[in-house]
UniProtKB/TrEMBL annotation:
Residues 1-61 form the HTH tetR-type domain. This is TetR/AcrR family transcriptional regulator. GO terms for molecular function: DNA binding. Gene3D superfamilies: Homeodomain-like (1.10.10.60), Tetracycline Repressor, domain 2 (1.10.357.10). It comes from Robertmurraya kyonggiensis.
Amino acid sequence: MVKKLLIMEKALELFANQGFEATSVQQITDYCGISKGAFYLSFKSKEELIIELIDYFMKQFISDVDYVVKNSKKEELLSEFFYATYRNFHEHSNFAKVLIKEQAQSLSEAFLLRMRNYDHMLDKTILTMIEHLYSDAVEHTKYDLVYSIKGLVNNYSGLILFNNLPVDVDLLVRSLVEKANILAQHVTIPFVSTEISTLLLRPTDEKVSKEHLIELLDQKLNEFDESIEKESLSLLKQQLLEPSFSSAIVKGLLENIRNHPHCKWISYLLRNYFEL
């Protein structure tokens, strides 16, 4: 596990400087100080390494944003959404930079499919936020708002990441909240119809089965020594097998694990499974 994480870290530095296509497995192994054989013990190919990096970053991002949307007070929701977004971009700036660049250039079908899947998850989270914030007032323009808010996030992220601008995050968030609210209040001509939205917001994150969740929990339990995270994971598995805890207790258990980088995705999946 340690060697695998080292390869991911070092490869990311090369990808950030050179891009995916221009970086070879040989360059990665030289930079890591390991043999090609050691690389292929961890990853079958460079593409598999890239997919794992995408999964790691996007799972952290989606789970953080989803938690904010479902747990923030209405009056703070939009600003908390933008804070969570830029916090993730800042913490993973190297990979965020690569993703923004490569999405426009990559011809890899696996890369594009993976990103499209996570993109749809983000669309649905933003739609949930918009419906909660503005309700019926944006019934005919809510799908346009989804893509407008995503556009603000992507464009300002690129502006900051590729120009190394000093960032006053509070000012940035206030500015984006104002823009989003103006769009919500004054846009009257929708482009994305309900019919188009059913194609764009296609189902990608159907409810994960109980059996699959138990399998994932078993994997996580093997990764941890005795800790509050391990105890909470064990109790959540028990809840799946024989439900007996109240919603408040399940929420508390999820809260115990959600900030651990290796538990964010399982907490996201469980939160959706338990509909919390």
